[in-house]
Design brief:
- The complex is a heterodimer of chains A (113) and B (116).
- Chain A is mainly beta.
- In chain A, 0% of the residues lie in helices and 54% in strands.
- Chain A has strands at 3-6, 11-14, 19-21, 23-26, 32-38, 44-50, 56-59, 62-65, 75-77, 86-95, 99-103, 107-112.
- Chain B is mainly beta and 116 residues long.
- Chain B is built from no helices and 11 strands.
- In chain B, strands 2, 4, 5, 6, 9, 10 and 11 form a 7-stranded mixed β-sheet that branches. Chain B has a 4-stranded antiparallel β-sheet with strand order 1-3-8-7, with no helix packed on it.
- Chain B is globular, with a radius of gyration of 13 Å.
- The mean pLDDT of chain B is 90.
- Classes of the chains: A mainly beta (113), B mainly beta (116).
Chain lengths: 113, 116
């Protein structure tokens, strides 16, 4: 089946620290992979995406590389800011007779000044 | 960029009444729209997928007679929570996928439903 597993939170970091949020997946077919961010009280915003193996998605200093050999799509940022505090969701999309997106459980990030 | 709006953003209703939530794609045509439910501090649970002009496909465990979905046009889908009860209180999020082969979904800002 299709599923997404991401590291449990919350993750608490100091400003300018390095961030890694792990995400692994299982999928039938060839999924596209996404990271979404949700700020308090808001809906989801697409942060970055990768549609095939070895693609690197990047946005606002965040990066993630589609690793087919390890079925992973870990999110990284070199220097986090307080404004990065949010919940981050890893997700995959596949078309198997119908289009569907599967979300991970979400990882809450707190960045303190 | 692609924008999806939801209305209302917050609604409070009494138990037993029905509530309609609208989801609109503002600058693109959406052949497929999705409705999700999100409980506090949890992930999104897909409730149903709707394609314009056809009946919605509901996920297992979602009552289709309670959560009525209508995708009347390429820019509008509605979710009606019928005979709402306090346990229906949740954050409802819609998303839309544009025509074409992209897997990208665009999400609305969500609707907070509180049933008293």
């Amino acid at each position: 089946g299709n599923s997404v597993t991401q590291m449990e939170g919350p993750v608490t970091l100091s400003e300018e620290a390095f961030l890694t949020i792990n995400c692994t997946y299982t999928a039938t077919g060839y999924p596209s992979l996404f990271w979404y961010v949700q700020y308090p009280g808001e809906g989801l915003q697409l942060l970055l995406k990768a549609t095939k193996a070895d693609d690197k998605g990047s946005n606002k200093g965040f990066e993630a590389t589609y690793r087919k050999e390890t079925t992973s799509f870990h999110l990284e940022k070199g220097s986090v800011q307080v404004s990065d505090s949010a919940v981050y969701f890893c997700a995959l999309s596949v078309y198997t007779g119908g289009f569907k997106t599967i979300f991970g459980a979400g990882t809450r990030l707190f960045v303190k000044a | 960029g692609a924008v999806v709006s939801q209305h209302p953003s917050r609604v409070i209703c009494k138990s037993g009444t029905s509530v309609k939530i609208e989801c609109r794609s503002l600058d693109f045509q959406a052949t497929t729209m999705f409705w999700y439910r999100q409980f506090p501090k949890q992930s999104l649970m897909l409730m149903a997928t709707s394609n314009e002009g056809s009946k919605a496909t509901y996920e297992q465990g979602v009552e289709k007679d309670k959560f009525l979905i209508n995708h009347a046009s390429l820019t509008l889908s509605t979710l009606t929570v019928t005979s709402a009860h306090p346990e229906d209180s949740s954050f409802y999020i819609c998303s839309a996928r544009a025509t074409g082969v992209s897997y990208e979904q665009y999400f609305g800002p969500g609707t907070r439903l509180t049933v008293t």
